[in-house]
Specification:
single chain, 207 residues, alpha/beta, Rossmann fold, 5-stranded parallel beta sheet, 7 helices, 5 strands
C-alpha cells in the first residue's frame, strides 16, 4: 500500500459548489476525490483559499502554499507520492497574476518537494502534477475571479511543459471534468468521482 499525499486547495478539501458564501460545507468521505484513490493510504492536505505562492490579504498569510507544503511534508511521512493540484486561487483578481507567474508558483513548490533534503527525509517520492480545471466567471464568487477565466485557460500547456522539464507525471483535470455552473470554481460530486478515478488510474501507472 502506497502513501499518497494530496496537496491542494478547496477542490482537494472537498468544498461543494458555493451557493451561500457565508456557509461552510464539505463533501464527506467517499465523495471527495482524495478518498476515492482505493488501495492507497491517503493524506488529505486540502486548504480552501490556498495559493501556490501568495499571502492572501483577506484570508491570511497561511494561504501561501510554499509554507503549507513545507509543513505538510515535515508533518507526515514517509510518503511515496505527492499529488499537487494548485493554481485556481492564484487567478483571483487581487493577485494580479499572469499564467506564467502561476506556473512559476508551481515551480517553486516543485523546488521544495524535489529538494534533496526533503526527498531524503521521505526516502524519495514521486510527484503527480495536476493542472486545475479552468474557472468560469459565474455565481456568487465571480467578482473574486474577475479575469480569471482567461488566465486559468492558459495554464495547461505551461503546467505540462513544467512537468516535462522537472520529470514529474502530469494530468490535465480540465480534460476530464468541468467546474460547476453554480459557482464556476468548485466540483460537484460527479466531477469528484470522475477526477478520483482518473487520478487513481494515473497512480497505478506511476507506483
Amino acid at each position: 500500500m502506497a502513501v499518497v499525499m494530496c496537496f491542494g486547495d478547496s477542490n482537494t478539501h472537498g468544498t461543494p459548489p458555493i451557493v451561500d458564501p457565508e456557509q461552510y460545507a464539505r463533501f464527506g468521505p467517499g465523495l471527495r476525490w482524495p478518498t476515492l484513490l482505493g488501495g492507497h493510504e491517503v493524506i488529505e492536505e486540502g486548504l480552501p483559499g490556498r495559493t501556490t505562492m501568495f499571502d492572501d490579504p483577506i484570508m491570511g498569510a497561511h494561504m501561501n502554499g510554499q509554507v503549507g507544503l513545507k509543513i505538510a511534508l515535515e508533518s507526515h511521512g514517509p510518503i511515496d507520492l505527492l499529488v499537487l493540484m494548485l493554481g485556481t486561487n492564484d487567478v483571483k483578481a487581487r493577485f494580479t497574476s499572469t499564467p506564467e507567474a502561476v506556473a512559476g508558483g508551481i515551480a517553486s513548490l516543485l523546488d521544495i518537494a524535489q529538494h534533496r533534503v526533503m526527498q531524503a527525509r521521505h526516502g524519495g517520492f514521486g510527484i503527480l502534477l495536476v493542472c486545475p480545471t479552468p474557472v468560469v466567471e459565474v455565481g456568487p464568487i465571480k467578482d473574486e475571479f474577475w479575469g480569471g477565466a482567461a488566465r486559468s485557460q492558459a495554464l495547461p500547456p505551461l503546467y505540462a511543459a513544467l512537468a516535462r522539464a522537472r520529470g514529474v507525471a502530469f494530468l490535465d483535470a480540465g480534460k476530464i471534468i468541468a467546474v460547476s455552473p453554480l459557482d464556476g470554481v468548485h466540483f460537484d460530486a460527479e466531477a469528484h468521482a470522475r477526477l478520483g478515478a482518473a487520478i487513481r488510474g494515473a497512480l497505478d501507472d506511476i507506483l
